[in-house]
Known about the structure:
The complex is a heterodimer.
Chain A: H1 6-9, E1 27-33, E2 39-45, H2 47-51, E3 55-59, E4 84-85, E5 91-97, H3 100-107, E6 111-116, H4 123-128, E7 137-141, H5 144-150, E8 153-161, E9 173-179, E10 183-188, H6 193-204, E11 211-215, H7 230-243, E12 247-250, H8 253-259, E13 266-274, E14 280-292, H9 298-307, E15 317-326, H10 340-358, H11 362-368, H12 388-398, H13 401-414, E16 418-431, E17 440-447, E18 453-457, H14 466-478, E19 485-487, E20 490-491, H15 506-533, E21 541-544, E22 547-550, E23 553-558, H16 559-568, E24 574-580, E25 598-611, E26 616-626, H17 634-652, E27 684-689, H18 714-727, E28 735-736, H19 741-749
Parallel strand pairs in A: 1-12, 8-28, 10-11, 14-15, 18-19, 26-27
Antiparallel strand pairs in A: 1-5, 2-4, 2-6, 3-5, 7-15, 8-13, 9-10, 9-12, 11-20, 13-14, 16-25, 17-18, 17-24, 21-22, 22-23, 25-26
Helix pairs in contact in A: 6-7, 9-10, 10-11, 14-15, 17-18
Chain B: H1 3-11, E1 13-17, E2 20-24, H2 32-39, E3 58-65, E4 68-75, E5 88-90, H3 92-95, H4 102-110, H5 119-132, H6 138-143, H7 156-170, H8 178-183, H9 194-199, E6 212-214, H10 220-228, E7 233-235, E8 245-248, E9 251-255, H11 260-264, H12 267-272, H13 276-280, H14 286-289, H15 294-300, H16 306-312, E10 317-322, E11 325-330, E12 335-337, E13 340-341, E14 348-355, E15 362-368, E16 379-388, E17 391-400, E18 407-408, H17 410-416, H18 423-436, H19 447-465, H20 472-475
Parallel strand pairs in B: 1-5, 6-7
Antiparallel strand pairs in B: 1-2, 3-4, 3-5, 8-9, 9-14, 10-11, 10-14, 12-13, 15-16, 16-17, 17-18
Amino acid sequence: MKNYDTTRHVRGESLFADDFLVPEGTLFASVFAASIAHGKILSIDISEAEKFSGVKKIITSKDIPGQNQIGGIIQDEPLLAENEVHYCGQPVAVVLAENLLIAREAKKKIRIAYETLAPITDAREAYAKGMLIIPPRIFSNGNVDEAWKQCDVVVDGTIETGAQEHLYLETQGAIAFPTEGNGIKIISSTQGPTATQRAVGKVLGLPMHQVEVDVMRLGGGFGGKEDQANAWAAMAAVSAFVTKKPVKLILPRQEDMRMTGKRHPYSADFKIGLSQDGKILAYEITFFQNAGASADLSTPILDRTLFHATNSYFVPNVKATGLCCRTNLPPNTAFRGFGGPQAMFAMEAAIYKAAKKMGVDASVIQEKNLLKEGDEFHYGQLAKNSKAQACWFKAKEKFNFDQIKKNVEKYNAENKILKKGFACMPICFGISFTNTFMNQAGALVHIYSDGSVGISTAAVEMGQGVNEKIRCVAAEIFSIDKSKIKIETTNTTRVANTSPSAASSAADLNGKATELACKYLFERLVSFVKDAFNYSTTDPIAFRDENIFCNEKAIGLTWVELIQKAFFKRVDLSAHAHYAVPGIYFDREKNKGNAFAYYSFGTAITEVTVDCLRGTYIVDSVKAVHDFGKSFAKVIDRGQAEGAIMQGIGWMTMEEVIYNSDGKLLTDALSTYKVPDIHSAPKEIEIHFLENSDNPLGIFNSKAIGEPPLMYGIGTFFALQNAMKSFRPEKEFQFSAPLTPEKVLLSLYY
Amino acid sequence: MDHRKIQQMKNEIQFICNDREITTAVHPATTVLDFLRKSMRLTGTKEGCREGDCGACTVLVGELNNEIILYKPVNSCLLPLASLHGKHLVTIEGINQIELNPLQHAFVDEGASQCGFCTPGFLVSLTGYFLTNDIYSAEEAINSLDGNICRCTGYASIKRSVEKVTNEIKLNKNYSTLEKFVELKVLPGYFLTIPERLAAIKLLINQHASGVFISGGTDLFVQQWEKLLSSDVQFLQRDASTPTIRIEGESCFIDSQTTISEIKSSGILQKYFPQLENYFQYFGSLPIRNRATAGGNIINASPIGDMTNFLLALNAQLHLKEKDKGRVVPLKNFYTGYKQLDKKENEILDSVSFNLPQNIFHFNFEKVSKRTFLDIASVNTSIYLEEENLTIKEIHLSAGGVAPCPLYLFKTREFLLGKTISPQLVKESAEIIQTEISPISDARGSAEYKRLLLRQLFFAHFIKLFPKIISLEEVV
């Protein structure tokens, strides 16, 4: 199955925000940002910049007609800094000029004076100083304090995971057009059109119906454009509103890197207790989440960390505490996995540390504790339809785990400088927004009188193939060729009150809504056929390959003829449908409930080779058995899995976000922040689709795929440590990710 | 500078963009990326980073050479428009035909495009691979994509589509000419008319003596693209009458305008340095190597320049020129501080030379960076060594990333000369190296790491060159 959209990608004909032709007179925006991480603004002098030839206007907080506030969940984020700055890179002003070069030059003439305040860049320091965004969150079950007494082995330790830059290839951006009657239209590169609409409405002081947000596609999002696309759309909107001119604001790469948040760095203290035979009896963990300067999505991200504290294992006694710490870094935000990966890294570290103490391979403990059918998570939901063990045992058998271990041992005995290592990484990831209300979507399907179909949904296409999946849904129900189906832009005037395309759920939610809308139309057309051809109500009508059948016989009517006839008989050929995921709820006071529609499972085995002279390494292979449910778009699903794994490996290895102690980002370009290139990809990658799995809550029984496989990347960290252990068996390595070549070398020799 | 002369020169930039003759008057330092996207409205070429690190803006530049066009992939974000004069610029739009070509087909079939933003760059690079090679291998085709970053696919599907298409095109032997590519529908038919059309454009000789000298521009356009747009710029041109790499007497001369790609594949140099291709595969990416020059790398004075590091260990000499006057400076004495050079403002680096080894010698280059490919070294080092029965007769050592400028290790050389290679000697000299360096902590690593890493890479030289005498256990 091909992805129809990619036929335009390969010709360079797909349009991204920066590619749209803008009208004559459009102004170009450049954002002036704070150069310090924390301070009071004493004065902003824009007079020199304003005089610069070609500059049309400089927008500061004073020019904002509505509220200077874009905080989504917690109202703690001004669009433009007013009295204080809280992170280096915080937007202060927007320079508008007749071309971008002028705007960028003029920006250099803005003078700002600060009274510098001490910045906090570390989450634990923020916690010590009482800088919590919300009170501590605690998810627990059983009684850990009692349980320690029954444990034969108890170990504790600390983990650190670094930030991760999204590095969507297309930077953030928006174009705003003033519309008649004081309205505004925005073309935005956003994962959440409604959130963008809401933010724009708020800063402009307009009702939502005055704000239209249109999204063609994104050049990658990965969570980075879920909440953080709003600021740039809102700045473009204010600029257009004030000047009455279209305004284009596209962030240059380095500004995008400096001004936007990343995956949250976490630090955590864990304690794990096991019985002699390797059963995990108790687990206690405290997460220090570095939220950055404002809440953004940090609080639901922290919740997901707590949900996934025990990864794919059953633990009877759990206490997981989450601390959302305010620091002077750019607000950290959603990134594929949404707090889950940090939790799973910690759980694995705890198991590896316990395994070392017990003198067993970590896989022994992993295997012994995998979720079984009906096991209860620490937040009260039961693991139903659990495939944790099925994936694990299939992976061990299919990829011959015992042989892998033997080969590694043999290789390491024969090689002095190069050492191989391996690791198993089971995953369990809950599918649904943990904020229950967000699990809804809408679809609007038009059948035009020539038989072609146009579909609008809430889903935003950003490379995950959601448009193709939705096209498949309609093609299947109408039984027409996919070339007859167009997926429209995502537009707030066609489908309102959308949830962002996030939480791996866009295809499920919008696919289901599309399925419903198409079924309404199908039923309508069937009734029409019965009426028009005098069939009885019980005669089975079917659509097959653009022909209409009754009682398995073609009735001599094509799809196109049917639609034309129906049109002339004044049948409504449009339908809207709304879908809400059934059976989910969560009590935020007790922190108990059925938070997820279902779970995604899998196991990956990773092999690596470390050069113990130079500290460098390669990933030899990643082989996974993954539960896709019944995949109906294998090319897309495989691609999601492979891409997520690579991103997870990047997070664990070379992707290092470095801020100095003043809160300035040192890795603010592709020359200093390295993401995996074609040579860093695993030499071998194999994805096996678990057999005999289904999932009635996914479209056509499939399962969500965007995020879960990212966490297979965690296996690379432990595989590297496994290899390093062969070179330095006596050493205790730190659980500090990313494990850069620097950290490998320093920990081997110091 | 005579204003009219600049104007005239500007007006004279003439080239072919895809199937269209272009004559343009925009500033010669305008990047090809901006020209394509803004003036030509060809938006298939994307801006991803503007520093040659992502490849989303990759284009092909074809140059006529004895009636044959040689196409090379380059980063259009670092490419000044002036460099296109008399050449054929090819973007994704110039490759498109009514139907998808076999490369595009393979990308669609294997799902090698997800969000689509990097895709045109990958396909242009891949097209470049097929146009510049006679024999195809999937491995080399994949290597040719070392300048293209994809954030979505994890590269597995891209590799699969490359393998597929390499196999398909492999079946058709001797299909390396433009005619065959047109027949295979890899390229549209107009490509066949290009050689004749290019020949009709008169080549320019722009000779002015002042302004900003620009060589390949792969660093200058990262740092100063806006400033260059308001500067008088002079693009250094090569002297077409002599080979860029040549042997004169006992010396090898490399013209300053020689690209890293030319050095990497030089038969003359490979004879002396059989591992040359391996060393320079770590220098930038293919599109960068196609533009970056030896001279640019030296004058840029980056403390971690790979080319400079290599040449320092060859004890190279620099030949500087100002009008008719020339002088020779040893490379090891050329740097006086961070980005400080023993060079007058209007002096131009003409060429670099080194004495061809007369005796049997050992050579090795080591580089470690956070990412192995297309990354700036945390530390790099080269060694040149002549010995007789393990007694060191001559040695040159260089180190990058550990001082404000590319470093020649004078003291360590003094210490090692005349001594016999042993594990003890290697250990002792590693201690001396530590007294010669002054690394700082930055995005490429902590000072502590760079000290340790240089020690390790110094060990690596000897472990690699003298495996029977030096082993890792004996030196650490």
